[in-house]
Structures are given as C-alpha cells and as structure tokens.
Design a protein that fits this description.
Order of helices and strands: HHHHH
Strand content: under 5%
Mean pLDDT: 86
CATH architecture: Up-down Bundle
Oligomer: single chain
Radius of gyration: 17 Å
Bound molecules: zinc ion
Helix content: 55-70%
CATH class: Mainly Alpha
Low-confidence stretches: none
Number of domains: 1
CATH superfamily: DksA, coiled-coil domain
Length: about 120
C-alpha cells in the first residue's frame, strides 16, 4: 500500500514543483492598460495566494514522503495522534489530523493578515 501512496505523492510533488517553477508566468502576467491599479493588485494578490498554497502543498507532500520512509505516515506531525483514514483518503499528503490542521491554517491566516499590503 505504501508504495502506491509514495508514487502518488511523487506525482503530486512533480506537478507542484512544475507549477512553482512557472511562478514568473503568473506574477509577470501582462494586463491591458485599461485595467486599473486596483484590479492589478487584486490580481497579484490572487497569484501570490495561489503560489503560497502550492508551496505549502509541496512542503506537505515532501513531508508525507518522508513520513512514509520514517514509518510515521498516518500519524499527526503536531500531536502525534492518528490521522483518520478517511482524511488520508481525501488528501494522501495530509501530515496533520483535522484539529491540528485547522489550528495550523488559522495561525497561517493570522500571519498573512498582518503582512503589509502595497495598495
Ligand atoms: Zn494532531
């Protein structure tokens, strides 16, 4: 079973790596002159959000592969409790149980909200 999961993670890792490699394509997106600054900066915001999601996903994917090797796959990285099989089935790169993931995301969101904005 773990071999199949490892391969799935590997495919996901390659896809995300590729996505992040094309980050310039997203951030240097050309906008027509009539698009006002507001829309332009919103667009940049969405792009950077997308990138941050992909790099977070990539981090988790690599970590999940590590966990397979360490034999801790299916165990939450934060509380060391079991990650429910149904969660792993929905997201095989899950490295945290649902409560820990929620805390993690809320914390991340707080940090992002505090980040200065340029518009
Ligand atoms: Zn946990």
């Amino acid at each position: 079973m773990s071999h199949a999961v490892f391969d799935l993670l590997e495919l996901q890792r390659l896809r995300l790596t590729n996505e992040l490699r094309h980050r310039e394509d997203i951030s240097v997106e050309r906008l027509p002159d009539y698009v006002d600054d507001q829309v332009a900066s919103e667009n940049r915001e969405i792009s950077s959000q997308k990138l941050s999601n992909s790099s977070e996903e990539l981090k988790d994917t690599v970590r999940a592969q590590e966990k397979l090797r360490e034999n801790t796959y299916g165990q939450c990285d934060d509380c060391e409790g079991d990650i429910k099989p149904i969660r792993l089935k929905a997201n095989f790169a899950a490295i945290r149980c649902i409560p820990c993931q929620e805390i993690h995301e809320r914390r991340k969101q707080l940090l992002e909200d505090r980040r200065p904005r340029f518009y």
